[in-house]
Amino acid sequence: MVTDSYPTVWEFEEHTRIKLSILGKYLAAFGRVLLSKNPQINYFDGFAGPGEYDKGVPGSPIRALQTFKNSHREKQALCVFIEAREDRYKNLVEKVEAYLRDNPTVRRPMIIHGEFEQVIGPELDRLARENKQLHPSLFFIDPFGFSGVRLTTIRKILGMPKCEVYFNLSYNSINRFIEVDKVEEHVMGLFEDGAVLEALKKLKPGERREDVIRDHFVRALQERGGAKWVLPFRVNRDDRKATAYYLLHCTNHPLGMRIMKEVMAGEGSAGEYAYLGPEDRSQLFLFKTAMEDLAQFFLDRYKGRQMTFEELIYDSYPLTKGTAPDYRGVLLDLEERGQITMNPPAANRRRYKGRPSLPESVRIIFPG
Ligand SMILES: C[S@@+](CC[C@H](N)C(=O)[O-])C[C@H]1O[C@@H](n2cnc3c(N)ncnc32)[C@H](O)[C@@H]1O
């Protein structure tokens, strides 16, 4: 049974805008890319909520319907909303019905009153038994805490072609409750091993609980959850200089990873992969390579190799803070200084904004 102390509809805080904005921008791109080759896509909102925040701000289910409508994908995108608490389920149904009345071209979503694991788990097992697959799907898993979702379910989702997960890791509640005995079962369900509990008991000097929890979970997603790429985005609470949650995008598709990195970079504060709230301007090093180290990073990593600019983007995106426009500037500087060469060379490429252009097909030759 699902219980929490919040009312049916709760307060809208600024950080929620970021969570929903990343969702909306990524969903629009997910639809655009995948519907060019597939007849249908699905969006599963596993912890859908009541469909609105206070002040009438639309929640994630309505946000998804709006996104597909605005991108003219509303007929080809099936939305499935799952909500366990009855009052919120009823509120969600009302909000969706009102939206459909105002937007009659929008495809009717499935709205299910139930618990995510109990609804999705058996369905994924049935598909596996029958050797069937889902249409390309994005699963948004957005619980308040960390119960109600198991790593085994994430593994089943990511095991299907073109299925991805956008996960809200509620660091705050994990941190508050992780060492309470009765939640061990939930921790084990989500992490599938107790190493995180051990690591928290024996924090090394300078180690932060938050980093330990996040890193263990990212590793769990990669090593046992079947995610090739996990991109984290830190979200601070509006009123505190502390992390509220991490948004984690899990995918096995290079283009999905690339698009989400670019969406997250655009949403971050001051070049960070984080919404830091109105006060906190602290640095966040989720990626191994900071912007100012990019040139040396490229020279070291690709020493003696050649590749197209596009290949370089896909290979290095999970490791750096930069995105393609940053890369372009750094690589053009290296070319100008004679530290790398390109084919075709600068003189044979069109100029753009006063510099040689750098299309993604250009080959980059790094010295040995
Ligand atoms: C953080 S809220 C979701 C907010 C929503 N995604 C949004 O952005 O508008 C989490 C919701 O999950 C519901 N919930 C809790 N446990 C659940 C479960 N096991 N299965 C489905 N829904 C659950 C809660 O009632 C709550 O409405």
Q: How would you portray this structure in words?
A:
- The chain is an alpha/beta fold and 368 residues long.
- Strands 3-2-1-4-5-7-6-8 form an 8-stranded mixed beta sheet, with helices on both faces. Strands 9-13-10 form a 3-stranded antiparallel beta sheet. Strands 11-12 form a two-stranded antiparallel sheet.
- The protein is built from 13 helices and 13 strands.
- S-adenosylmethionine binds at residues 2, 47-49, 59-60, 82-85, 88, 115-116, 142-144, 148.
- S-adenosylmethionine (SAM) is lined by residues 2, 47-49, 59-60, 82-85, 88, 115-116, 142-144, 148.
Overall 3D geometry?
globular
* Ligands present: S-adenosylmethionine
CATH topology of the largest domain: Rossmann fold
Fourth-tier CATH superfamily name of the largest domain? Vaccinia Virus protein VP39
Mean pLDDT: 90
The biggest sheet amounts to:
8 strands, mixed
CATH architecture of the largest domain: 3-Layer(aba) Sandwich
The value of Rg in angstroms is 22 Å
How large is the count of helical segments?
Answer: 13
| Overall strand count | 13
Q: Can you tell me the CATH class of the largest domain?
A: Alpha Beta
Terminus-to-terminus distance:
62 Å
Instruction: Give me the secondary-structure category.
Output: alpha/beta
* Strand arrangement across the biggest beta sheet: 3-2-1-4-5-7-6-8
Tell me roughly what share of residues is in helical segments.
40-55%
Tell me the strand percentage band: 15-25%
- What is the number of independent domains? 2
- Low-pLDDT residue intervals, each spanning 5 or more residues: 278-285
* Succession of helices and strands: HEHEHEHEHEHHHHEEHEHEHHEEEE
